[in-house]
Amino acid sequence: MIRQTGIQLKKEFFEAWRRKRILVLVIVFVATGLMSPTLAKLTPEIMRAALPAGMALQLPAPSAADAWTQFFKNSLQFGLLAMVLFHADTLCGEIERSTLVNLLTKGMNRTAVVLGKTMYLLSIWTLGFWGSFLVSWGYTGYFFPDSGQLHILTSCLLLWLYGVLFLSLMITASAIAASSMQSLLLMALVLGSSMLLGIFQKIKDYDPFTLGSRNLEWLTGSAKISHSWPAILLALLLILVAIGSANRIFSRRQL
Predict the structure, then answer these.
(1) First to last CA, the chain
(2) Mean pLDDT along residues 224-250
(3) Spatial separation of the C-alpha atoms in residues 147 and 141, rounded to whole Å
(4) Which is more confidently placed, 52 or 3?
(5) How far apart, in Å, are the Cα atoms of 198 and each of 5, 117, 157, 193?
(6) Which residues contact residue 63 at a Cβ distance below 8 angstroms, ignoring those fewer than 6 apart?
(7) How many Cβ atoms are within 10 Å of 91's Cβ, its own excluded?
(8) Do 154 and 215 contact (CB within 8 A), yes or no?
(9) Domain layout of the chain by residue ranges
(10) With 90 as the cut, is the pLDDT of residue 166 above it?
(11) Residue 104 pLDDT > 70, yes or no?
């Protein structure tokens, strides 16, 4: 099983490199890291330049919190979105194109296929996210000397965990769907459901999807991370359930 999973993992990386997906994702994540503090720094100047001549506008000086707020938004809107768009068909696409038939008939275990694809996705997300974090951390520290007052690592760690959860659910959606479009529609349904859950403030400490929306609160210390342990534990449980469900569903699908 371990050897077959390794073979599938190498296959995923080779195919992603051949199709230039890795190159595009590197550009997206690096751009996210560069863009976040830069936008925070330049936004007041851009807004002043857009005003009619003679009109004054008092804006607060940009801070490190503004830069990290941009990073949180951009990581989801660009980095994670690119991951989903590129890999929504990670399982259903293989079935649709019948590209796994030869491997499976030669003895490749379906569980190894699911695990290899999962490891590939989580590896790319982890490397991309933390690489983007380092770029943003360096530029934010250069532009804003007040960075040391923030809980940066904790906030980013929980955002990374949210990405792991979202990609794990995408793997399940891809195992269920018949095409990449169906997989994307299922993920849109998941996103919509998570937004509806966010309306109920009483369950926010138990809602695993708040790991991608409360990062500014944790960054500034206005919310305590200890209160969100139920959401973190539930997120970890959902990740395991999602991957296990994907394996179970894919094992029963006809190629």
Answers:
(1) 21
(2) 93
(3) 6
(4) 3
(5) 37, 30, 20, 9
(6) 40, 144, 146
(7) 29
(8) no
(9) 2-252
(10) yes
(11) yes
